[in-house]
């Protein structure tokens, strides 16, 4: 089969790789029908995630069909259409028992496209399948479902839930890429007074409005002043960092109010300055997190009911073997306007609705 292989920082290729095989009784083999590219994959290609060894197939989000199962698998069978979660869960360790699947100590956590071969291939082996794949209702198309493998659970859990968004809050999301947009959309579920999006790209600020932002600010044009004006100088109740660079984290720390929450979502490849000389007295709560995907069943029900704007997130579609071209477009999103790129064959042939720009 073919897969998209990481060969070191700045080096990758769509090439022949060995077919996956069941290795453990809890494994399944999934034929990949739809897959997408994550900002984390770009961080890997930049060398920001040194744990990824050269020769690894990238990707941790997919929808496909079960073609083979191990002897201990009980919840799915060959022929089932499933969502492959970005997080694998052993289900037995202390963290899994608390629903903290991202911190699994039994061999799971974020392993696909990280410590083992991932989903950007024609087939993928998924360990711990009973907790790591989700049967899909017919009402959720492949193109929509693949967005629930990572970005919507991440924006919701690591941003909205960790940030403790409440009714009447002022929420600021710094970074209006796909995860930031998912955070904006799911923050609206909690009836904040306003949501403000900050980004450098005009196209992404336009998309943020489409996903529910009440105000937008160019990151180069003093967003602190806009937030001060909107909050009477107090600052935002909840600020989410959805980029993963020092400047955006430090901006978040400047605009959060006393007693507020700063929820870091972004993947950081270099240190950020933590100005404790300013923050220690302000009762600010800072959270970090790898998504656990405990919310995936809830989000799937919402998607089936048409309550999530998944379709508007897809800006480009490609056949699976156009992976290199898709990476180039996704990696130059400021110029191409890319949000999420879906590769493969959708369950139904659906033309995506482009975001407003």
TrEMBL record:
GO molecular function: oxidoreductase activity; zinc ion binding
InterPro entries in alphabetical order: ADH-like_C, ADH-like_N, ADH_Zn_CS, ER, GroES-like_sf, NAD(P)-bd_dom_sf
Entry annotated with the keyword tRNA-binding: no
Transport among keywords: no
Domain of life: Bacteria
Keywords: Metal-binding, Oxidoreductase, Plasmid, Zinc
Annotated Enoyl reductase (ER) domain residues: 8-343
Alphabetized PROSITE patterns for the sequence: ADH_ZINC
Cofactor(s) for this UniProt protein: Zn(2+)
Homology family: Belongs to the zinc-containing alcohol dehydrogenase family.
Protein name (record): Alcohol dehydrogenase
